[in-house]
């Protein structure tokens, strides 16, 4: 293995070991002294959601605290309301509240509720953005971990490939009848591209010929249909010629010769009657 490659890989592994990704312990600020004293809350959720460090444990912990805060809010409002009511009716100088004061308090309460609702919406938006970024970061981390695994296996693969190349070079004869087998990579790629172009041209020619095939087939059928009568006429002419030769060899007179003599006699007679020079 190349020393520079091994050195780079060692640096990457060392960087990863020194920057291990872990889930943030968000509940430490909430649990406060309970975390330091070792007190455990009584619930069906794991006392330490970071033992496994999974998103499911964090989600369960978050749901637990949401439910707990909702109960605490209800209890707080109930206790404060009771306390104020008891103080109002048991004090030496009872506090009397006018209708106008109630209206002003209700108006102020409506404003506070509206502001609180806006803040809640903003918090929900921030939480959603954090969740989105966390999921994206998790996906990137998993991708990087997979790439790191592949990177760790690359030196071994490179070594194996180098050994295979050396083995193939030893098997390849030095005086090869096929010089293209020993071309460098760039020339081999150029040769492969040229062969691909030739194959593409051949495919185009084959496609063109296949498109012309039905037309050529119809033309061939037409020529065969025209050739049939000509073949029959040829056979008939050959048969007649053989028959005429046979008769002539036997000393007879052929029908064609008789017709020829008759045509010549008629021609001579007509020329004499019409006084036409031959």
From TrEMBL:
Region: Disordered, residue numbers: 32-54
Entry protein name: Kinetochore protein Sos7 coiled-coil domain-containing protein
Claim: Lyase is one of the keywords in the record: no
Coiled coil: 127-171
Keyword Ribosomal protein: no
InterPro entries in the record: Sos7 (IPR037475), Sos7_CC (IPR048781)
Protein's organism: Eremomyces bilateralis CBS 781.70
CC annotations in GO: kinetochore
């Amino acid at each position: 293995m190349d020393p520079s490659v091994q050195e780079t890989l060692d640096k990457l592994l060392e960087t990863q070991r020194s920057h291990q990704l872990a889930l943030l312990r968000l509940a430490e600020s909430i649990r406060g002294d309970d975390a330091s004293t070792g007190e455990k809350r009584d619930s069906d959720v794991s006392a330490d959601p970071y033992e496994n460090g999974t998103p499911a444990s964090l989600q369960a912990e978050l749901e637990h605290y949401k439910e707990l805060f909702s109960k605490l809010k209800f209890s707080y409002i109930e206790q404060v309301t009771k306390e104020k009511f008891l103080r109002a009716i048991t004090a030496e100088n009872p506090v009397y509240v006018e209708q106008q004061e109630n209206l002003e308090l209700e108006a102020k309460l409506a404003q506070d509720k509206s502001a609180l609702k806006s803040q809640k919406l903003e918090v929900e938006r921030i939480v959603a953005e954090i969740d989105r970024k966390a999921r994206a970061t998790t996906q990137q981390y998993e991708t990087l971990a997979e790439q790191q695994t592949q990177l760790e296996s690359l030196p071994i693969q490179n070594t194996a490939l180098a050994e295979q190349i050396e083995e193939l070079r030893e098997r390849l004869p030095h005086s090869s009848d096929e010089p293209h087998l020993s071309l460098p990579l760039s020339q081999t790629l150029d040769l492969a591209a040229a062969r691909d172009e030739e194959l593409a041209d051949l495919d185009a020619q084959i496609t063109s010929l296949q498109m012309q095939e039905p037309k050529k087939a119809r033309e061939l059928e037409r020529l065969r249909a025209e050739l049939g009568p000509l073949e029959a006429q040829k056979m008939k002419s050959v048969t007649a010629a053989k028959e005429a030769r046979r008769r002539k060899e036997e000393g007879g007179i052929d029908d064609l010769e008789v017709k020829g003599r008759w045509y010549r006699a008629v021609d001579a007679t007509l020329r004499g009657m019409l006084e036409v020079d031959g």
